[in-house]
Amino acid sequence: MPSRNRVAYAFLAPYLLIFATFWVWPIISSFLLSFQNTRVNPWRFQPSLNWGRLVADPAFYNALYNTLIILVIQVPVMIALATVMAVLLNSPLLKARPLYRFAFFAPVVVGEVAYAAVFRLMFSADFGIINKLITSIGFAPVSWFDNATAAMILIIIAVTWRWAGYNAIIILAGLQSIPGDVYEAATLDRVSKRQQFLHITLPLLKPIILFCAVLSVIGTMQLFTEPFLITNRGGPGGGTETLGLLLYRQGFTSLNFGYASAIAYTIAALAIAISLLNLWVAREPK
Amino acid sequence: MAGLSLKNVTKRYGMLEVIHGANLEIADGEFVVFVGPSGCGKSTLLRMIAGLEDIVEGEIRIGGKVVNDAEPSDRGIAMVFQSYALYPHMTVGENLSFGLRMNGNPRVDTERRVRRAAEILQINELMQRRPKQLSGGQRQRVAIGRAIVREPQVFLFDEPLSNLDAELRVQMRVEISRLHKQLGTTMVYVTHDQTEAMTLADKIVVLRAGKIEQVGAPLDLYDDPANRFVAGFVGSPKMNFLETKVTSSDATGVSVSLDCEPAVRLSLPVKTPIAEGTAVTLGVRPEHFLTAGSGDADLTVHVDVAEHLGNTSYVHASTAGGEQLIIERPESRTVANRDQLTVALSARRTFLFDSQGNRLR
To answer: Which portions of this protein are annotated as coiled-coil regions (chain A) (predicted)?
Structure first.
């Protein structure tokens, strides 16, 4: 190796060492951990234990089902909402645009515990403002924390509230990169605003929307905060337990790190698979 | 096909007036070029004709119909943008047919129009490509093709060649000229390049700061500019302006003297009576200097830089009074930097302007 390169690597070494210790090694270590029986002392190599349990565990399937339900409903709804919000934010008719932009982005900045507390108050069965509104228009109050379906809807609403604005800002950046004269050309071509949105805006936003979708898929696969803090650790009765929560329960409540590692790897594999599927479905035609 | 008429057309952004009551008649089939420096309002005026900018006052008629409040798509115009404004995710074919398809135009007719445009512009081979796979010139052709398929009454071009390199610009200029002859449709073309204006136009409209300075055929503007601005804008290299004073004036003309060594006195056939001692500006085009002794007065200058292009030479020179000049002399191939050069002025080929820049005739 030329001495110049050796010097360069010497300078890089501290970073590479930290990277290898705290990034690469945990990935390898947790993968190895998933093949260990961590409920005995000392831990024993027992490959079929955790992975065998995973494929047969009803709690895992429940968490997987909940996570996928949230993913299938929440991600498309949020992305659609974010796109509409971005288009509205981009409208020249909108006054005080920076204010709205900040308002939509603000939920991401709010602390998770604070936002969870506010949601718990708002959706409280007895004195929450949401039930007050529902009853004021003549419907029966909803037991947001005791009914599994309602709790799931609450999680979807909360996650959407928190992340729609964030995605809208990303999509807005994409919208602003579409040159205005393309729309002027379309206007001269007698193409209506609706047609312009469907045939120009959406196709040109596709890579950005896809980027948001992939980020959201990864985020949802790891969903933890909302079911943990808002719906009482995945309640009622595991009705909102997600894979992230199951991982936490196994790892940090039951201290079964081997099984938690197997779940972690499953989450990562699913996130990669769904994201790749996303990219493949939306690929550019040759 | 249709003519176009602007009557007292005005544009204001808040308090700022950017087009000051423009009046213009464009005949059916005419090729009119709006030319002027950056920010003179030529693109704004074009966009007002297109309907992309509102009109504050005045009236725009296309084919005899007032179109002030008509939607851009209802004005019978098609526009070619400076940036081409092609739909980046569509193929060339889709770009051409998009507007027609969205409006439910019969498929057979759409195909016919697209085929015709592709043939006129020779882009048949490119139909399956996307804009990013095309060169600048090809993109410009597609943009023009998209205008052709609309079969408009008036074509509007907004600096369509400014993103192309010099060679391609010349080639596309010729093609646009050919297209105009082939289609015979009224065309309004915006450019800041006076060469494009001179070569393409039937009629040039020179704008400055939102005002129409002069309207006329290219050579009329060259031979008979209305003011100093037009005189300086039309012609390349631009006209030289020398500050002079009137030494005498009578019914046959005025005499002016230039601050030169030796002093230069020139009698000009200007009929306007001008008081003795009035400061006036003498305009001489670089190509209108003559060989010493063959004109009405000789002028000796100090050569700063001589540029020899082969077919001609441009001599950047200064007078004894310190005024800068450009002299075009095809026969001065041997002139070198720091030489003295004597050339002649012809009274017939000079222009006189007052201190406001108005032409004195």
So the answer is: none
* Residue A175 is assigned to a structural domain of this protein: yes
Chains A, B: CB contacts under 8 A, how many? 61
Q: Of B205, B233, B261, which marks where a domain is finished?
A: B233
Alpha carbon dihedral A137, A139, A141, A146, in 10-degree steps, equals -140
Residue A121 lies in a domain: yes
CATH number at residue B328: 2.40.50.140
Nearest 5°: phi and psi at B3? Answer: -90, 180
**b/e map of A135-156 (b: 16 or more CB within 10 Å)?**
eeeeeeebebbeeeebbbbbbb
How far does A276 lie from chain B, in Å, by closest CA?
Answer: 22
Q: Which residues of A touch B104 (CB under 8 A)?
A: none
> B99 contacts in A (CB within 8 Å)?
186, 188-191
Question: Structure pTM?
Answer: 0.82
Q: Give the structural domain span for B293.
A: 240-360
Task: Please identify which residue in the block is written with the tokens 């790891």.
Answer: A222
Q: Domains in chain B: how many in total?
A: 2
Interface contact flag, A189 B98, Cβ < 8 Å: yes
B267 and B170 both lie in a single domain: no
CATH number, domain of A150, equals: 1.10.3720.10
Q: Is B102 on the interface with A (CB under 8 A)?
A: yes
ipTM above 0.85, yes or no: no
- Tokens representing A267? 């989450």
B273 and B200 both lie in a single domain: no
Tens of pLDDT, residues A174-219: 999 999 999 999 999 999 999 999 999 999 999 999 999 999 999 9
pLDDT of residue B4: 92
Ranges in chain A, pLDDT < 70: 285-286
